[in-house]
What does this fold into?
Amino acid sequence: MNEQFARSLAEAWISAWNRHDLEAILHHYATDIEFTSPFVPALSGDPSGSLRGREQVTAYFRKGLHAYPDLHFDLIRILTGIDSLVLYYRSVNGLLAAEMMTVNSEGLIQTVRVHYVKE
It folds into this structure.
């Protein structure tokens, strides 16, 4: 993971979310994505907080875009690891978010762990 790839991915990801472009958002994810977020139980009904596979993630993102029509993310910082990155950004309802994403050999997001704090 180099800083240039991480920045490119982060900027494209933020832009897709801010346009509410579901297809562009999904373009960044592997088909066997594993996604964990505190919002999952409320939006998907799955109390585990985790979703697996693009079909589940697509339904969840669609509900999220519908539930938050004014959704807008402001990127604050990108942190890089070996095969991962963390996006630190301002999210919905005054929340600060940190998403840890692992990236597979194809450059697609493989796993996500989302963390929030009310500012």
Remarks:
- Strands lie at 29-36, 50-52, 74-80, 84-90, 95-103, 109-118.
- The chain has one domain: 3-118.
- Residues 3-118 form a domain with the Nuclear Transport Factor 2; Chain: A, fold (CATH 3.10.450.50).
- Residues 3-19 form the longest helix (17 residues).
